Amino acid sequence: MDHSSTVAVLRSTLGEEGFRTSQFRDNFRIVVPADRLFDALRALKEQAGFDMLADVTAVDYLHYPNATDRYGVVYCLVNTTTGERVIVKTFVNDPEPRLPSAFPLWKGADWLEREVFDMFGIVFEGHPDLRRILMPEGFASYPLRKDYPLRGRLERHNFPAIARAEG
Amino acid sequence: MAVRPNENFLITQLDWLANFVRANSLWPMPFATACCGIELMATASSRYDLARFGSEAIRFSPRQCDLMIVAGRVVMKMVPVMQRIWLQMPEPKWCISMGACASSGGVFDTYAVVQGIDRFIPVDVYVPGCPPRPEQLIRAVLDIQEKVKKKGTLFGREFEERKAPERPRALALELAPQEKIVAPGDYRTATQEWEAN
Ligand code: SF4
User: Mutate which of A131, A133, A158 to disrupt the B interface (most B C-beta within 10 Å)?
Assistant: First the structure.
């Protein structure tokens, strides 16, 4: 797949040095800095025709060899006319990982960003309804962070037991 | 002179009658949350035919049921729902924990999956397997029938004997040494206490 027109759009928006690209098999990856993320996504949508946001997810690079940033946030975009796919990646860090919400561009970002918030605690500014989507309301941790224990912090046993005579 | 049966004699007979009626028409409430639910459906199908044992009337309203079959893993978000459904079922009622996940968490030893529903509601019969075959579930229903016939009383006195929650005590065994047990409360206290330590 030829991505040259996509790269040209990004070059005119972010400048020559504003982004990095790489290719792994058929994945074309674009790494942009977090403060230019929204500009990049908007250019990709409005000028390069990426009209579908297929997925938003995140990676926690804690203890990852040679990693410089804590969280990578990944956007998978599809151009439904040409079938072109790109992966946009950006990095955020503790203590307050924040990114602009992609909701103004793609309505489908709503639940995807809620899931990333629920699992990694990355706050999407401008999201209309940033609540937990998978974990219960009162849950206080972000379970897919690498410093969260696999078995949890005993939240799973934190319920009253019902005995026979009461029930 | 007519023989007057004494009180005890009479009550025993009523118990027997009640047990006979209850045991042979258990109405299951399917609490099917995962793959075990498929075997539960197969059990009710014509091939395995749970109707032979009087339990064909599967109802999706807890208020019409007296046998809860928890089939599948239960996550912590589901525990309050499960407890509410259990409380909505009228007495007398029984519970089957079907499959490895419902009984012990199975392979899902993660933050979200509870390690056995018997920590939160009373369980009468556990069915091993992943998933158990329909024959095993039928065996469990027959075991419940036997339990009802042997021990049941008209007013459910056999339940009142068991006031304490029958949940596993050895919670500490499953924890790593640096983890600590939190008292029941909300999640927030659990996590804050954790972080304070
Ligand atoms: S015991 Fe096996 S079949 Fe049943 S819910 Fe668990 S994983 Fe699925």
Answer: A158
Domain residues of chain A, as ranges?
A: 4-158
Distance in Å, CA B49 to ligand 1 centroid:
21
- Find, among A42, A125, A35, the residue nearest to A77 by Cα: A42
* pTM (2 d.p.): 0.80
Q: Quote the ipTM score.
A: 0.79
pLDDT in tens, B18-31: 888 889 999 999 99
Distance between CA A146 and CA A120 in Å, rounded?
9
Give me A124's structure tokens.
């999407």
pLDDT in tens, B127-181: 999 999 999 999 999 999 998 888 787 777 777 766 665 555 444 445 554 454 4
CATH of domain B7-169: 3.40.50.12280
The CATH code of domain A4-158 reads 3.30.460.80
Phi/psi at B31 (5° precision): -105, 75
Mutate to test the interface with A, among B191, B192, B195, B197 (most CBs of A within 10 A): B191
Task: Residue A153: list chain B partners with CB under 8 A.
Answer: 111, 179, 182, 190-191, 194
